Amino acid sequence: MNQGSSRPIRYYGKGIPYLHDEKVKGRLIVIEGPDASGRSTHIGMITSKLEAEGHAVLNTGLRRSELVSEGIMDAKREHMLGRRTMSLFYAADFADQLENKIMPALRAGYIVLADRYIYTLMARDEVRSMSKRWSHQLFGFAIVPDLVFYLDVEPEELVHRVFQKNTFLDYYESGADLGLSDDMYESFMIYQRMIAKQFRSMQKRYNLTIINGNRAIPEVNADLQKRIDHFLGSIQH
Q1: Domain for residue 201, yes or no?
Q2: Is residue 109 part of a domain?
Q3: Which of 37, 48, 176, 229 could be cross-linked to 151 through a Cys-Cys bond (beta carbons 3.0 to 4.6 Å apart)?
Q4: What is the pLDDT of residues 137-151, one digit of tens each?
Q5: What is the C-alpha separation between 199 and 42, in angstroms, rounded?
Q6: pTM to 2 decimal places
Q7: Could you report the per-residue pLDDT of 95-124, keeping only the tens digit for each?
Q8: What CATH number does the domain containing 69 carry?
Q9: Closest CA to 174 of 191, 155, 159
Q10: List of E strands, the chain
């Protein structure tokens, strides 16, 4: 189902020059949030509902480029990524997906659901003392989404969920590369608070809708579905 009439693409910066005259029918919806916040679960549930209603849906997210994702994973396993290298690696991953997955889907009228977007990458850059201006310019080729949700989960709840999924804390998701603490648990708590602070600071500039992610999955999902339904209903009338 096409999401209304064709419209020009909006970029955060200069965009991709050869795509400036492109028009799309689809819609881009982003769900942001830390690991174990429920992003993937919600996207799965939203996808099922939208498809049942007749919408064509594409799922995407960070580190899913066929060209780049394995390289990122290998470098992260060896703890080889410096802060600028990490940003450039993820920017290449995102650019490949934007050109080869997201844009074709939007042209065809799909609803694209993104499991994280450039906001996570910019928040990571900021807490690693990278320039906001540099980071914004780096991701200036990114399309402005139609909706952006950030699942805000308290670190105390988040770490509980992480241990329900895994028996360990991720090195980079704990900010271990920053030397915040010799204790991984404490480093995780500090780092997640730093990331959440960056998302709140981005709320106005990037039109983020902050969702209370501390609630049970069905309650949070109902909140997301209601907001998405309202948006889709508004553009179809």
Answers
A1: yes
A2: yes
A3: 37
A4: 999 999 999 999 999
A5: 19
A6: 0.91
A7: 989 999 999 999 999 999 999 999 999 999
A8: 3.40.50.300
A9: 191
A10: 7-8, 23-24, 27-32, 57-61, 111-115, 147-152, 209-212
